[in-house]
Structures are given as structure tokens and as C-alpha cells.
Amino acid sequence: MFDENDIKLLIKALNDSGGYDFSNYSLKSFMRRVEKVLYDNKIDIYTLINAVKIDNVFLEQVVRDVTVNTTEIFRDPSVWQALKYMVLPRLHARKEINIWHAGCSVGMEVYSMEVLLCEAGLLENSKLYATDINTDVLLSAEKGVYSCRNSEEYMTNFRKALCVNPFNREEQINIPPQKYFDILPAKDEFRVKPFLLKKADFKKHNLVSEGNPFGIKYDIILCRNVLIYFNQNLQNKLFAQFWDYLSDDGILVLGIHESILGPLTAKYEKKGLIYQKKLI
Amino acid sequence: MLNIVIGGSAGSFPIVTNILAKLDKSFSYPMFLCLHRLKSVRTGFVEALRLKSSVPVFEPHDREPVINGHVYLAPANYHMYLTKGNTISLSTEEVVNHSRPSIDITFGSAAKSFGSKCVGILLSGANKDGAIGLKAMKDSGATIIVQSPQEAQVKTMPMAALKITEPDFVFTSSQIISYLQKLKE
């Protein structure tokens, strides 16, 4: 076992040797992640600290392992319904729509967005930017090939997100998933169709320290279930940064059970499941 | 302040509904529910629990401060951690015992954060999630209750707990309800 002092030593080592700053992570969740790394590698905390000081490849591995990569195709369909009916309609007038997926994991959210944009006739005019700290997940994201293990949930999500109109439940909408995905159970492959690949710009980026990864303004920033691992200070810093990076009527999408607390509450207007930048 | 933490899976829904219906409106302890649900049933669960509940039921947001007398249901697809500062932490980390939310996680966090100031209740269910967490609660001084396997619709979960720890009470659901009703006295 280990205590908070050991964790501080590890955080210092990760920062000194790799430039990764975990000091503003929620201590509890960081400790849980470290416990898992120790368990998976069958080592103790001191071995871990020493190893990240001397072995850069291992350090990168540890950084990948302490971050969380849970994601789904159309996770939380009600969020996608809100985007479809409340946000996308007013982007039709735009020549260019810029969307940033901050903490994109293996890219399922990015491809879900592409499908939503495609159905709205907006994909052509959209630029998708996607970042994560973990280079492994970015490689998977670029390939757009996943396991079939959860494909039933993905399809349930897909139907709820795209084929149900929450404002008119009678409406019949029929969009076949095969238009966008090849589902190959025999190969255990859930593949994104080629025309959706290469559309998004995937890039390694450290949300904590690297500012705006593409140096542009975004109409939508999605950062779902990332900030729950950060402490309040870092959350506030990022809500302020997102505000700066959003276009004037830009939208911030958080995880369905996340909310903006603290001083930045005043700078966003909560509209159902999404936050709109307030100009003040 | 006492905290009530309840875990359950298959067969626990009617019991939880019944507990919530029979609590007094003035029930003054915070209650936390970690219930497995079918993957296809992600929404509508909290609404269903609210229908007959005499106390308010919520799916909390991350860092939500806990209010006495409120019931907090672990949201679909998130682990729910209870913290010393009386807030709720959510996480999307890996599934535990094939489950997210995992009862072991919620119970384990209750053991760490609440120690003896806690009652843990494990109900009917078809897997072993919750047993280790319930033992951790017992070891840190909490009062623990297991639904009687004879009564449980699916006994795997209560049996798994009985195998590794000795609960303070093995109760039927009506005994659980009257225990909770008496707590406020």
C-alpha cells in the first residue's frame, strides 16, 4: 500500500521525467488508477517511481494506464438528440463549423458526430478536431475499427440518438446503421465506413498544460467525462479556457452527469444537457 | 450522521421500490442506491423509482453535495463513490464484476469514508458484486444487512456475501423496511 506522500513523489517523477502534470488530478481517482497500475504490473509504488525516472517508454505506458478511456458510439443518446435538434439547425448558415473533441479516446464520439453531421447535411462544411493524451487510443481512433463486443449497445444508442425525435415521438425516422458502419461479428469487427475516416484531425494533446491544440475558435467543444478526474482548480481553469476557445455562441458539451460549478457558472448558460457560452 | 447504502441487482427493484414507498417523508438520513440495471434500460429508472417514493430520488452529478433525506441512485454507466466531504464522485473507469456501477465500489468507498457511521444493505442479485464491499464495510465498523437468501428472488448475491462475512442481520425485505423506519426514532 501507499500514502499521499508516495503519490506526491510519483507525481513529481512523472512531471520531472515526462513533463506530465498530474498535480491537479483528483487525488482519490489518481490513487485508484495508480493502485490499478501497481496491481497490473505486480510492483510496489517505489519500484514504480524509480522505473518512471529511468525508463521513458514505461513512463509513457503509465501515463496511458492512469487515464480512463471509456467511450461508446452515441453514448448518452439524449445528448445527441439535443445536438441534433437544438444546436445543429442554427449552424446551417455557417461556411465552416469547427468542432473539438477534447479527450476523444478511441474516437467513437468523433465518428458519432460525423454521422450526426452527415444526416444534417453539415458534414462537408465541418472540421473535426480530436485530441487525447494517450497515443494508443489515437491510433485506434484513426483506424475506426473496434470490437463487436458492445455493438448491440451501440446500435441501441444509434437508434435512440438518430431515429427518435424527443419533440415528436410519433415521427418515423429510419436510418440504417449499415450506412455508416460495417458490423462483422465473425471477425469481431465493428468498422467505421471508409468515407468517414480521415475526416477528423487526431492529435496528441495534454489538456492540462497545452492550451488550445489547433489555435482556432470552436463552435462546439465536447469534453465528456474527462474533468471528473480533475480537481476543482483545474476544472475551473479549463472552463475558463474553453470559454476563450469557443466562438461567440459556442456550445460546450460535458458528460451527462457533469456540471460547471464555481466561478465559471456565470459565463455559461445551461440549456438542458448543453452549455452555451455567455458573452459578458 | 448515519448513511444508508443499498446494493442490489436482479430481483431487487421491487424491494427498493417498496422501501422508498414505506419510508416516512421525514426520513432524515441520506440514502445511496447502487443497483445494476439491464444495459438497455439506461433511462427511465430513476423516474420509475420516484413514482411511489415518499422521499426525493436523484441521479447525482459528479461532486454533488449530499442532502439529508435525499436518495441518490448511481447513474447508468458510472461508478458512484461516496466521499468524506459528503459529496458524490462519479467515474467512468473500467467495469468491475462486469458492472458499472459496481456495488463493490460504492460499498468500498462507504467503508473508507463513513466507517461505522453507515448501514450497508445487500439485496437480491445474480452475481457476486457487493460481497467484498460489504465485508469492507463490516470491517470498518458499519452495520451490515443481507437480504435473506430464502426470500431473495435471485440468491447468488446475498449468498456470496454470507460466504465471506458475517452480517449483523439477515433480514427479509419487510424486516429491512421496519429496521429503516425505526432508525429515525
Structure characterization notes:
The complex is a heterodimer of chains A (280) and B (185). Chain A is α/β, with parallel strands linked by helices. Chain A folds into 2 domains: 4-66, no CATH class; 77-145 and 196-277, Vaccinia Virus protein VP39 (Rossmann fold). Chain A is 39% helix and 18% strand. In chain A, strands 6-2-1-7-8-10-9 form a 7-stranded mixed sheet. A 3-stranded antiparallel sheet of chain A has the order 3-5-4. The model of chain A has no long low-confidence stretch (mean pLDDT 95). With 185 residues, chain B is of the alpha/beta class. In chain B, strands 3-5-2-1-8-9-10 form a 7-stranded parallel sheet, with helices on both faces. In chain B, helix 1 crosses helix 2 (45-52) and helix 4 (131-139) runs parallel beside helix 5. Chain B is globular, with a radius of gyration of 14 Å. The two termini of chain B are 14 Å apart. Chain A binds chain B through residues 26, 28-29, 32-33, 36, 68, 70, 75-76, 78, 152-153, 156, 225, 228-229, 232, 255-259, 261, and chain B through 39-40, 42-43, 59-63, 75, 77-78, 81, 83, 89-94.
Give the count of helical stretches of chain A. 9
- The name of the CATH topology of the largest domain in chain A is Rossmann fold
Given this structure, which CATH class of the largest domain in chain A is correct?
Answer: Alpha Beta
What percentage of amino acids of chain B are in beta strands?
15-25%
**Largest sheet features of chain A:** 7 strands, mixed
Task: Average the pLDDT over all residues of chain A and give the rounded result.
Answer: 95
How many strands of chain B? 10
Q: What is the topology?
A:
The complex is a heterodimer of chains A (280) and B (185).
Chain A: H1 4-18, H2 27-41, H3 45-54, H4 56-66, H5 77-87, E1 97-102, H6 108-119, E2 126-132, H7 135-143, E3 145-146, H8 151-163, E4 181-184, E5 189-192, E6 200-204, E7 218-223, H9 232-245, E8 246-254, E9 268-271, E10 274-277
Parallel strand pairs in A: 1-2, 1-7, 2-6, 7-8
Antiparallel strand pairs in A: 3-5, 4-5, 8-10, 9-10
Chain B: E1 3-8, H1 13-22, E2 31-35, H2 45-52, E3 57-58, E4 64-65, E5 71-73, E6 79-82, E7 87-91, H3 103-114, E8 118-122, H4 131-139, E9 143-147, H5 156-164, E10 169-171, H6 173-183
Parallel strand pairs in B: 1-2, 1-8, 2-5, 3-5, 8-9, 9-10
Antiparallel strand pairs in B: 4-7, 6-7
